[in-house]
Amino acid sequence: MIHAENVTMHFQTASMKEPFVALDHLSCSIPSGCIYGLVGANGSGKSTLMRLISGVYRQKSGSITIDGEEIWENPAAKARVVYIPDELYFLPQSNLHKMAQFYRSVYPSFSMERFEQLVKSFGLDKHASLNAFSKGMKRQAATILGLSTMAEYLLFDETFDGLDPVMRRLVKKMIYNDILERGTTAIITSHSLRELEDTCDQLALLHRGGIVFESDVERLKTSLYKAQVAFDTPFTKEKFEGLDLLSYDQLGSVATMILRGDREENERMLRALDPILCEFLPLNLEEVFIYETEALGYKFEEEATGGDRK
Amino acid sequence: MKANTRFFNTRLYVEGLKRLRVLGIGLLVLVLIASVLVPTVHWILEADYDPNLNRAPHVLDQDESYILCIPILVFSATTPIFFLVLFSYLFKRRESDFFHSIPYTRTCVYTSFVAAALTWIVGITVISATAAGLIWAISPYAVFAVSDLVVLVLISLAASVYICGFMMLAITLCGNLTTVLLNFTLFSLLPRAIAVMLGLILSDRIFLIDVYEFFGGFFDFNWWLPAQICCYESSISDMLPTVAALSAGLGALLLALSGYLYHKRPSQMAGNAAQGPRAQHWLRCLFTLPFALSLVTYILIDFPHPEFVIVLVLAIVILVVYFLYELITTKSFRCLLRATPWLSVVLAGCILFTGCYFAIFAGIVYPKTDADEIESVSSVLTPLYFAPVDYESYEYKRFEACRFEDEELRELVATGLLNAQLKTRGQSPYDPKDKTYFIDLNIHLKNGRTIDRNILLSQSEFNDLSEILQYHEKTQEALYTMPPAESVDDITVSSYHGLSPLNDQQKQEFVTIFRREYAAASTEQKSRALKGADTYEERQGNFVLTLYGEIDGESYYSRYFITQEFPESHAFLKQYESYEPKYEYDFDGIPLSETTVKE
């Protein structure tokens, strides 16, 4: 398990007047054997958190541990983690084969067999210069190398964003196999919730250096739903007291609401009010995130246009 | 066996060697070619001499032969490039993140990579030196000694470690190539620049001390390794190994410090000028400091009337350097305004520097030393004022070591010291038209301290001092006593007209005769023997005896002009006078056919 406790991280270059706070007293726990997704806008702190977990950065305060061990300057802990960054780097004038040799010398659990198998699956030429690869191919190469380390924790920083759908499915399959066979934990960051929806078990939303919302995907999908009801007599919102309403919108005799709680119980309560129309509609994950975060008081659209948090 | 990931790792070391492969092989080829070419070309040029031009081929003696290995010394100046290339990943974010993500401690990465860079440097130096040494050894125009070659290799490696220490310090403190290069220049030159400037002020304003011997030679340029190597002369070659060893020690310390800084260096610093705004401010101030100190130096030297124009120009230069550094390193005009208040740090540095000068000034110029506090004085007045001895002679060294305890002498010295202090303070006790003398001497105090000072004497005081010294029994004994036989290693006997070679026994016999005659001679006769011949006529029919030896760890040579004032000795050598000189002119009246023998 990866545990972050009250982690703060800020950056200040020589030309900056004030430091930029990348992570602000962040705490989270990432259980072993899961696929954990981190979603957030640019500058929300996703990559910073990944770099802290992989031991590249050192937090200004707080602690980050892997199974109770601090990561910073701990080769044994770092050997259990492989970080595939958003901006890739390969050794100069190298090809996949040379990079594999380097990784093999660096990571004690690196498997050449796995490497060969993955190279074959992805269809890349391991002796071709990496400089000649396209951006997508480089991401594939980095993924191959990362998976071949047989590390317990795989950190993919916006890696999937650069892969085509076929490769994305292949990588997901590799990760699932690793999880099932070795109990690997994968942490994936992305801008796109839709991207992570199909892949991750758990999701967390980062905003301005903190985790705003964290939950497992299945629970998220079933936690909220949309209901539309209509009555032949005038009514107001008070009619629905007793229901856990996240959002309410009424247009004439039709009310649309977002409800939390047991669906059958809520349906029973609504039908008891004798509506002329009562329909339940599913929400996608994006909509769930939006309503949940609005309930927490985050108005992202207003913030983007200069509004304040409630 | 589990690989070491904490302090040093062989695989990382090999990776470091591989990363430097292209640079290393390229430089190896270049340096090897140059190292072989220089002695070869020298050989060819010297072999191609024309005997009709009356010039013999010049055989480089042991002290000169080092020039055949100049390519290796030049290479040592370029070695920081190995560290710059190997640690260049620290200048780019994604590369830096990559190397900091691998499961090794930062110390392990640092030591493994440093070892790889040093391996290339040592390899290229040794291989090139060996190749040059082989040519050197078989060349008939150079005197070769394996020990000299080993010393040269060690000096070159010491210079490499010294200069690479500064480069690594710059790399660990800065985040991009421009800032690294600027600060590498700063770190390697700043300490010496401060010493030079302070030395200039002290030598100009404080007459009492020999600046280059003060502070144990701190201000002496000869203690700076680059100066030693560039200005290599046989007369200062004795210092070079010591200076090289000290410099290597400093370089090693800097590498160790850099290792600590590397451990602390955040990966996110890559691409930035410095670790943060405060570090940036300090580096900028340090970079500007030598320029600011040059203004302070000028003002103090020309005090109280420095030229306004020069002050203004230097002040403008300081501001330009200060803000230009900020602009070049941060590429931001916005930062210039924020940088302005930190000029006060530069000002504080100048005040500190000035304070050091005034503290030294006050410490030397104000404390009064009474005659009662002086136990004795030595190295008083060069004996050349009253005795024609060579600086390297046994007699001169004996005289320098004499300690004079006479009360009159101590009074004179105390007066001279006070006069020098008064003059330094601008209160000279003498009329500017009067002739005065500055004399350097060692004052041994009763509290056990010895101070090296220049004293100031008027003409009459100087005459008194000279008289006391000239006729002092210690002076007579020092200047007019031949070196003891057991201290003499070699004897040379020569004549302008040529001398048949003398065998050991003959030499022994001659020196015995001369010792007897010299001991019985008067002071004036001895003085003339020490003085030697000034003219061609004086040299005719006379001889020169040179004794080489060592006393108290210092080598000496003493020459005696053998004339008919020493009749037995003169007659003894006369019987061996032989042929005409081979060349019409030679430099010291010593023919090429002289022989030496150990006593």
Oligomer state equals heterodimer
Mean pLDDT of chain B: 86
Number of helices of chain B: 22
* Secondary-structure class of chain A: alpha/beta
Q: In sequence order, what are the helices and strands of chain B, one letter per element?
A: HHHHHHHHHHHHHHEHHEEHHEHHHEEHE
Class based on secondary structure composition and strand pairing of chain B: alpha+beta
Number of domains of chain B: 3
User: What is the H/E string of chain A?
Assistant: EEEHEEHEHHHEHEHEEHEEEHEHH
* Unreliably modeled segments of chain B: 581-587, 591-599
Largest β-sheet summary of chain A: 6 strands, mixed
Could you give the count of β-strands of chain B? Answer: 7
How is the biggest beta sheet of chain B arranged?
4 strands, antiparallel
Into which percentage range does the β-strand content of chain B fall?
Answer: 5-15%
Parts with pLDDT < 50 across at least 5 consecutive residues of chain A: 302-310
Radius of gyration of chain B: 31 Å
Q: Any idea of the CATH topology of the largest domain in chain A?
A: Rossmann fold
What's the CATH class label of the largest domain in chain A?
Answer: Alpha Beta
Write the layout of secondary structure elements.
The complex is a heterodimer of chains A (310) and B (599).
Chain A: E1 2-11, E2 20-30, E3 35-40, H1 46-53, E4 61-66, E5 69-70, H2 75-78, E6 81-84, H3 96-106, H4 112-122, H5 135-148, E7 153-157, H6 165-182, E8 185-190, H7 193-197, E9 202-207, E10 210-216, H8 217-223, E11 224-230, E12 244-251, E13 254-260, H9 263-271, E14 277-281, H10 285-296, H11 300-304
Parallel strand pairs in A: 3-8, 3-9, 6-7, 7-8
Antiparallel strand pairs in A: 1-2, 1-4, 4-5, 9-10, 11-13, 11-14, 12-13
Helix pairs in contact in A: 4-5
Chain B: H1 10-19, H2 21-47, H3 70-78, H4 80-86, H5 93-101, H6 106-138, H7 146-173, H8 177-205, H9 225-230, H10 240-264, H11 277-302, H12 308-330, H13 334-339, H14 343-365, E1 374-378, H15 394-401, H16 407-424, E2 436-445, E3 450-458, H17 459-470, H18 473-479, E4 488-495, H19 504-520, H20 523-531, H21 536-539, E5 543-551, E6 554-562, H22 567-574, E7 596-597
Antiparallel strand pairs in B: 1-2, 2-3, 4-5, 4-7, 5-6
Helix pairs in contact in B: 1-6, 2-3, 2-6, 3-7, 4-7, 6-7, 6-10, 7-8, 7-10, 8-11, 11-12, 11-14, 15-18, 19-22
